[in-house]
Structures are given as C-alpha cells and as structure tokens.
Design goal:
This is N-acetylglucosaminyl-proteoglycan 4-beta-glucuronosyltransferase. Pathway: Protein modification; protein glycosylation. The protein has 573 residues and is an alpha/beta fold. It is 28% helix and 14% strand.
Length: 573
C-alpha cells in the first residue's frame, strides 16, 4: 500500500467509525454516504490499488495473521527483573509470545464501491513504536476464518482493547475486555458506564475520544508497566466482584439502592473500589474504614496493640488441672492481652465451685445464647479489640507463642494467623475434594482452635452466610472452622498464615472428657470431608488457597545463645 500514510491517509473515508452494531441492515457509516463505503473481498484489490481502513465493531474477532510492521519490542524491565537478563531461556520464551499493546476488535478494510456490502472481522496489532498500520496489497492475506476460540485467545493475550459504541451507546465488548484483564479503551463519548455511581472507572479504563482516533496509539503508549499492571488489577477486581455473574450484578444493584435509601449506613467510594469490594463490606457493622481489616495499609495505619482471647468451652470443668486453667494463666501474662472471655457452650451451667485463676486482665464468662457450634463466631459486644484470639478449651500454648502469633497478625490483619494447619486436595479417583491433617509441605487452612483474626469476621460469618450453611455446621457439630476458612479465603483471595509452635496439634489426639469420643470417632473426620464438598458447592468453586509459608521468630533454631532470642520459650521442649 504505497499510498498509505502513517496516519491512515489512504482516502477521505479511511478515518470513519461505525457507531452501530455491525449488521448489514444497520450498516450506517458516519460522515460518508452508504454507497461510497462498500466492502470488497480481500482477495480482489480495487482497480486503483488503494485500500481504506475504518474502525468498525464486528460480531466477533479473528486473529490477524500479519506480523507487526514495527521493530521488536524492547524487553520490559519487569520481565528482566523476574526472568533474568536478555538472552535467558525464560525471557526468550516469554518474548517470543509477546503481547500486542493494542487489540482492535473493529478493524475493517474498505474499497471503492463495486458490489453490495458484506462484512468481515479482523484484528490488528498496534505495538509501541507503530507508525503505519497499512500494508501493501501483496501482504494482505485471504479472509481469515472467524473463530470464537481465536477471538478469546487473542483477547486474553492483549493489553489494551478498543471498545467502540454498540448498537446503542454501550457495547458488550466492554465486559469481555474486563473479563480478559484487557484494559478497555473506550471510544464512546457520553457513555454512562455501569454502576458509575459507586465505581471509579478512571482507575480501570482508558477514555479515548471517538473523534480523534489517530491519538489512540500515542495515548496507550503513554502508560508505563506499573500503570498497566495497576489498571489490569483493578479491572479484575471489578469484574470478579461486580460483573462475573448475574447474581453479582443483581446483588450490586440492590446494594446500591440500599445505600441510596440508608445513607447514614452506606458504603463510601473506597469500600466500593478497593478490594475486597462493596459486596463484602457490611455497613451495618461500621462505616469507618479502620473498623475493617482491609484498609490499614491503604490508610497507613496499624491495628491496635491489644487482642481479646475467646475460649470456647463445650465440656464441664471437673478438675483444676485441666488445660484451660493453664491456658488462662499463659494468656494473662501476655502484654498484648486486653481481656479473656470464656464462651460457655456446655449443657451444664457454670459451677459456682469452679475457682478460676487470678489474672491481672479482665476476665468474663458468657453463656452462649444458642447451644450451637456456630455460636463461637457470634459477634459479642464485650469484644472491643480489632484482634480476636480464638481458642479451644484443650489447646496448649505458651505466652511466647501467643505474643509471636499476635505480632505476625498485626502485619496481616485481613488473614487468619495461627498454629494448627490443615489442607485440602482433589481426589481424582472419587472426583471430589478431600481433607487431610497430615503434616505436609503446604496447607490451605488454619483451624480456629488457636488462631488470630479480625473481629469483623464474626459479624460477617453471622450475617453474610446463609442459614442453610450454618445449619449444616450446627447439625454436625463440626466444620465451623473449615467454613470460616472458606469465608475468609473467598473474601481476600489469599491463604491463611501458619506460625511456629513448639507442640504439635493433631486431630487424632485423644482428648479428655466428653470431647474424647468426638475426636476419636472416625465419622468426625468423614464429616469434615463431606463439609468441604458442601461448602465448595455453595461458593461455586474452591476458594481455599495453598501456601508453603511458615513464619518463625528471628534466630529460630539458630546455633546462638538462647538469651539472644526474643521468643526463646518456643524452642524449649
């Protein structure tokens, strides 16, 4: 195409945009009579040898087989940092499958009028440094085969996607781009984007000017790698939170209406636009950002230096030497402990003969309102600290172990941080999820028998989960800790954190009292297997994430004097 300029100056009709959905009956070209914008098959060059280019929305995409006319992309710095210097095998493999900077789902070739209009969709690469998107007639290939598979493959392999007007003002291509983490470049002036009342779309899209199409290449080249990564992350957060299913779209609509009605308990812009998103923020709990575990880093704050110990008791106390007595003493010695709460969930009332240990911190015994296992996660007014240390009555922890776990939680306030870890796996033979307590190199759950988490999760567990799930837990008198792990992982999309302890915690350990039969019963373990599959069905997938990270104190197990170690008691047998 010798006559094609770097600015598509092939002919007066080469700078036009189709504003309606591409259908033959609605083939309306803006700025030129319909009979002057006729499509000719690519295999038949026009008599004048001139080719015109227009941006039009096709019904779907195909991969354009032409290579980019510009030079090879320079190696991005973030790839060099991650994969090594130029020439490394990993880097070469990545660069061979380089991504186009800009994907146009709407590139069409037009010729002078010779026969009735027809349509064909194709695609174009606009990498950095591109000056000319026209090619000589000899390089124009035959019409490609339209393929949805190629379309979605190309979409997911692109950085920017052009989104022009559809049949009306909006375009379904917008949602497709969001789903594929392809940054939408909007070419639709005046389009009110979905949920714009609460969503700040400036952080997730590039707003183009449909009357200045020639500025699009320079516009997308102005973004550096860090900006591109940030925008793509935001597109994924918005897609997963608000648009990935009809249920989420409808729920978001109702929540926005609720915020309009109850303005005094409505979510602010940060809650809607920062992970985990507005649907996971219950404004009835609070409207202040620092009352939630997700915004400390954003606001440059840290959780308070206090925690509340919540001990869940299900069996009557028959001896002063039971583990709970030693546990209370160890908790009271912690400099971070604000108060100790014993949640009495036993059929027998608290005996007045019980002599609780003397403590220097407030100590209170509360009778559970409902004698169900879910009551351990009921939001209690007595708990005023951000951090909750959930404990079983038979757990054995030292003061050093408690203090170390709390300092770790302060750095990860949105996660569950604790000691007893478990894992899930996919059983291919049975085609179902499995549960294991074996000591392996990874884990996906930290049981709430000895774990720190934010008090908001009590409120979220009680008011967000359906009664059907909680009734399953209550009927089995089991799996409440698994359900809490499912819930937290589904919200933050991150695994829990295991910390070091000096004593191992096994579900196969024999316990004293009435609880012994439950832990020794093989049905107890089978129930937990069944719970995982029931929970994954409700969450429409497996939200649990595996992790291989375990956090130890500084100098843990190092061959130095134990006096130099802050948490030296953890290493003692």
């Amino acid at each position: 195409m010798e006559n094609c300029s770097p600015f598509w100056a092939c002919s007066p009709s080469s700078h036009l945009a189709q504003l309606d959905d591409l259908e033959t009956k609605a083939f309306k070209i803006i700025g030129i009579p319909h009979d002057e914008a006729v499509y000719e098959p690519l295999t038949s060059p026009s008599p004048t040898g001139r080719w015109s280019l227009c941006l039009l929305p096709p019904p779907f995409l195909v991969l354009h087989p032409l290579p980019s006319p510009c030079s090879a992309l320079s190696t991005p710095k973030y790839l060099q940092d991650a994969c090594g210097p130029p020439g490394s095998p990993i880097l070469e493999k990545l660069m061979k499958s380089r991504k186009p900077l800009l994907t146009s789902t709407h590139l069409f070739l037009f010729f002078p009028p010779v026969e009735p209009p027809s349509t064909l969709s194709s695609i174009s690469f606009l990498p950095p440094g591109l000056q000319d998107i026209c090619s000589p007639p000899s390089q124009i290939p035959p019409p490609p085969i339209q393929s949805h598979d190629l379309f979605y493959k190309m979409l997911h392999n692109s950085t920017f996607c052009l989104v022009p007007r559809g049949r009306r003002l909006g375009s379904f291509r917008f949602l497709e781009a969001l789903q594929a983490a392809c940054i939408p470049v909007l070419l639709s002036n005046g389009w009110e984007l979905p949920f714009s009342e609460v969503i700040d779309w400036r952080k997730a899209i590039v707003q183009g000017e449909e009357r200045l199409l020639l500025q699009i290449p320079s516009l997308v080249r102005s973004f550096d790698n860090d900006q591109i990564l940030s925008i793509r992350q935001q597109t994924q957060m918005l897609w997963e939170t608000y648009f990935s299913s009809v249920d989420k779209i409808v729920t978001t609509t109702f929540e926005i209406i609720q915020d309009r009605i109850y303005k005094h308990v409505s979510r602010n812009q940060i809650m809607w636009n920062v992970a985990p998103g507005g649907l996971h923020i219950l404004p009835q709990f609070s409207t202040h950002l620092l009352d939630f575990p997700f915004y400390y880093a954003l606001l440059g704050a840290k959780p308070a230096e206090w925690f509340t110990a919540l001990i869940y008791v299900t069996s009557p106390l028959i001896s002063q030497s039971q583990p709970i007595m030693k546990l209370i003493v160890a908790l009271a010695k912690s400099k971070y402990c604000s108060q100790i709460v014993v949640l009495w969930n036993c059929d027998k009332p608290v005996s007045p003969k019980i002599k609780w240990p003397d403590t220097t911190v407030p100590f209170v015994v509360i009778n559970a309102e409902s004698k169900t296992i879910s009551s351990r996660f009921m939001p209690l007014d007595v708990i005023q600290t951000d951090s909750v240390l959930s404990l079983d009555e038979d757990i054995v922890l030292s003061t050093n172990e408690v203090d170390f776990a709390f300092t770790v939680w302060q750095n990860f306030p949105e996660r569950i941080v604790g000691y007893p870890a478990r894992s899930h796996f996919w059983d291919a033979n049975k085609a179902r999820w499995g549960y294991t307590s074996k000591w392996t190199n990874d884990y996906s759950m930290v049981l709430t028998g000895a774990a720190f988490y934010h008090r908001y999760y009590h409120y979220f567990y009680t008011h967000y989960l359906p009664e059907s799930l909680k009734s399953v837990v209550d009927q089995l008198d089991n799996c409440e800790d698994i359900l809490m792990n499912f819930l937290v992982s589904a919200v933050i999309k991150l695994p829990p954190i295991k910390v070091t302890q000096k004593k191992q915690y096994k579900e196969t350990m024999m316990q004293q009292g009435p609880k012994a039969s439950r832990w020794a019963d093989p049905d107890h373990f089978a129930q937990r297997q069944s719970c995982i599959n029931s929970f994954s069905a409700w969450f429409a997938g497996m939200p649990l994430r595996h992790s291989q990270m375990r956090l130890d104190p500084v100098l843990f197990k190092d061959q130095v004097s134990i006096l130099r170690k802050k948490y030296h008691d953890i290493e003692r047998p």
